[in-house]
Amino acid sequence: GFFRRTIQKNLHPSYSCKYDGCCIIDKITRNQCQLCRFKKCIAVGMAMDLVLDDSKRVAKRKLIEENRERRRKEEMIKTLQQRPEPSSEEWELIRIVTEAHRSTNAQGSHWKQRRKFLVRHNTQNN
Questions:
Q1: Superfamily assignment of 2-50 in CATH?
Q2: pTM, entire model
Q3: Which residues fall within 8 angstroms of residue 40, CB to CB, at 6 or more apart?
Q4: What's the rounded mean pLDDT across residues 13-23?
Q5: DSSP structure string for the chain
């Protein structure tokens, strides 16, 4: 965060050091001298030109998310293509279960009439 904010807000020209740029920067002392902290960032290989502005950062995140979604879809298609075709016994079981479901489905007209009757019957008892 420190390095990115420094670059995006162009703060590094305003940084100064009380000890001629010789501060030891570690996890404990890093907040004591901004100039030496910034210099250490550069020394360890952080590149100012690789810091993205807000619009580029948003675009990069969007691209990453689109790529993840594309890979998820490709993986799903691959998985579906590798799934074996059901055997004739499995198809028969699917047919029997589907037929049983349809014949007892509560959406049929017989069940609608029965439900109406049951609702009226319950309201009359209350």
A1: Erythroid Transcription Factor GATA-1, subunit A (3.30.50.10)
A2: 0.49
A3: 25
A4: 92
A5: -HHHHHHHTT-GGG---TTTT-----TTTTTT-HHHHHHHHHHTT--GGGPPPHHHHHHHHHHHHHHHHHHHHHHHHHHHHHSPPPPHHHHHHHHHHHHHHHHH-TTSHHHHHHHHHHHHHHHHH-
